[in-house]
Design goal:
3 domains, Rossmann fold, six-stranded mixed sheet, Transcriptional regulator, alpha/beta, 344 residues, 434 Repressor (Amino-terminal Domain)
Length: 344
């Protein structure tokens, strides 16, 4: 015999057990609009517990005009920085009594668009959005009327609410930290050249080099995906060249980890033979060996601000800027020098 699916408990079942009408059950579940005598309310609550009844969230959303859900679209959740920001946003949404629906674009623009349509179709109350390449589908979002906040800098002419960190200035600062050690041959493992954030980070590296009147060697610019594999493959290409830079700026934490792995396979030590810094470090940076010197963004503060912006959204653009900070690890050589001085 074919096994029958379990019966879905309805309000009628609760009403029958409690000896009331379906309308009274609705008043109890929705806390109104009509008052219910305390004894009757308790019978309904006991019946709900006994039957295991769960209110229909979709129906309640249609009645209240809110789904109690937010959407989050990110380029690639495997990126530690993206995952850390997503985690912070998830915690803030839970604190706000909302459920977060995650959409991972996998670095694919078409998939990103499909995710946006899917989340809008589910009538999310708001959307947090970090586009794959800073060319977001703003027209789609504006046409929907759904509140949204961009989690990364985009073209100001788009006139949208966004969080912003000056990535060019941050990249310059972390590169200048390398130069302060006396390194002059500094290369960069950057992101895909067509991505705007990759261009910001390359320009920050160039700014630092030019401010120190150093020659920029085009052979030391290694485009790669923002992944561990990207950093690993960039080093393989680097090793095929005739010379190696003395120091490297890697454009994110994942690239840095892949880079160090590839260098270690060739018995090239960091920072003794090649010093290294990276962008967008996370809590993982301090636990890597060697620990990473990196630029950090205030993810907790950013998540709280993004949540507040979404709740205050009225269709007008709001921009919130955040300061980055340089976190010193072992990969640049700072702590190695300090340890040597201590031994002496």
């Amino acid at each position: 015999m074919t096994k029958q699916p379990p019966h879905r408990v309805t309000r009628s079942d609760v009403a029958k057990l409690a000896g009331t009408s379906v309308a009274v059950v609705s008043y109890v579940v929705n806390n109104g609009p009509r008052p219910v005598a305390e004894a009757t309310r308790q019978r309904v609550l006991d019946a709900i517990k006994q039957t295991g009844y769960r209110p229909n969230g979709v129906a309640r959303a249609l009645a209240s005009g809110t789904t109690k859900t937010y959407g989050l679209v990110v380029p690639n959740i495997s990126n530690p920085f993206v995952a850390s920001l997503a985690h912070a946003l998830l915690q803030e949404s839970l604190n706000d009594g909302q459920v977060m629906l995650l959409g991972d674009a996998g670095d694919d623009r078409q998939r990103e668009l499909e995710l946006i349509h899917s989340l809008l179709g589910r009538q999310v109350d708001g959307l947090f959005y970090n586009s794959v390449d800073r060319h977001p589908y703003i027209d789609v979002l504006k046409a929907s009327g759904t509140p949204f906040v961009m989690l990364d800098r985009v073209d100001p002419e788009l006139n949208v609410s966004m969080l912003r960190v000056d990535e060019r200035a941050a990249s310059r600062q972390v590169t200048e930290h390398l130069l302060s050690h006396g390194y002059q041959d500094v290369g960069i493992i950057c992101g895909p050249p067509d991505m705007l954030n990759a261009q910001d980070r390359i320009n920050g590296w160039r700014d630092a080099m030019e401010s120190h009147h150093l020659t920029i060697n085009p052979d030391w610019i290694f485009p790669a995906s923002y992944t561990r594999e990207g950093g690993y493959d960039a080093v393989q290409r680097m090793l095929q060249s005739n010379s190696l830079p003395r120091a490297l700026f890697t454009s994110n934490e994942a690239q840095a980890i892949g880079c160090i792995r590839a260098l270690s396979e060739h018995r090239i030590e960091v920072p003794q033979q090649i010093a290294l810094v990276c962008f967008n470090g996370t809590d993982l940076s301090a636990f890597h060996v060697p620990s990473l010197t990196t630029v950090r963004q205030p993810l907790g503060e950013m998540a709280k601000t993004a949540m507040a912006m979404l709740k205050e959204w009225n269709g007008e653009a709001m921009v919130r800027e955040f300061a980055h900070r340089l976190e010193i690890g072992e990969s640049c050589g700072c702590k190695q020098v300090k340890q040597q001085n201590t031994i002496k």
